[in-house]
Design goal:
- This protein has about 210 residues and is α/β, with parallel strands linked by helices.
- It has 8 helices and 5 strands.
- It has a 5-stranded parallel β-sheet with strand order 2-3-1-4-5, sandwiched between helices.
- α4 packs antiparallel against α5 and α4 crosses α7.
Length: about 210
């Protein structure tokens, strides 16, 4: 049995990631693809508990290192309990964030740097990477304007300098891995961005349906 495709959706706050993820799900469903959707941190019972601490419990003080370790603890459980079994069953996995987010938020925003995260990535993931990462991007000012009316989590409430570092790290990773990470600008209409997603996925779907 051929393995499923592993697709991750990334983006800074306010980039329209959630809207585009929902449209992606509808598109894959219309193409007859069997898939699950999940998220990080989270995806499992243990992961969701860690998500609550990392994102929502702003009353709890976390060091940058503790935050990164919690994210990878969630990811370890996520991979073993959900992601890998699903891929091995032949279904696709669509994840709202994965390791690129850790490089962006903890590595860039928190200043941990790539080298420490690389050690954790190698230990926890053992070479597992997404087949495709859709990086939704928008200029910093627009992203901030879009999230001002929303209820903030630990990262949405951060200062502008933090958010700039997150975006820069995302773009840096996209430049380093252009075959995997595809940048989709969401400054224009939602429909324009979704059409770009469909154009990127069309050859992948064709190859998949023809036996990969």
């Amino acid at each position: 049995m051929k393995k499923g495709m592993f697709i991750t959706v990334e983006g800074s706050d306010g980039a329209g990631k959630t809207t585009q993820l929902n449209q992606l799900v509808d598109y894959l469903r219309s193409e007859g693809i069997e898939f699950i959707t999940t998220r990080e941190p989270g995806g499992t019972d243990a992961g969701e508990l860690l998500r609550e601490i990392v994102l929502k419990r702003t009353d709890i003080e976390l060091s940058a290192e503790a935050e990164a370790l919690m994210v990878f603890a969630s990811r370890s459980q996520h991979l073993s309990q959900l992601i890998l079994p699903t891929l091995n069953s032949g279904k696709w996995v669509i994840s709202d964030r994965f390791t690129d987010a850790t490089y962006a938020y903890q590595g860039g925003g928190r200043g941990i740097g790539d080298s420490k995260i690389e050690i954790l990535e190698e230990w926890v993931q053992k070479g597992v990477k997404p087949d495709l990462t859709l990086l939704f991007d928008v200029p910093l000012e627009i992203g901030i304007d879009r999230t001002m009316s929303e209820g903030g989590d630990r990262f949405e409430d951060e200062k502008q300098e933090f958010k700039q570092l997150v975006r820069e790290q995302y773009l840096k990773r996209a430049r380093a891995e252009p075959q995997r990470i595809k940048i989709i600008e969401t400054t224009a209409s939602k429909e324009h961005a979704h059409n770009e997603v469909r154009a990127l996925l069309k050859p992948i779907l064709d190859q998949w349906k023809n036996g990969r």
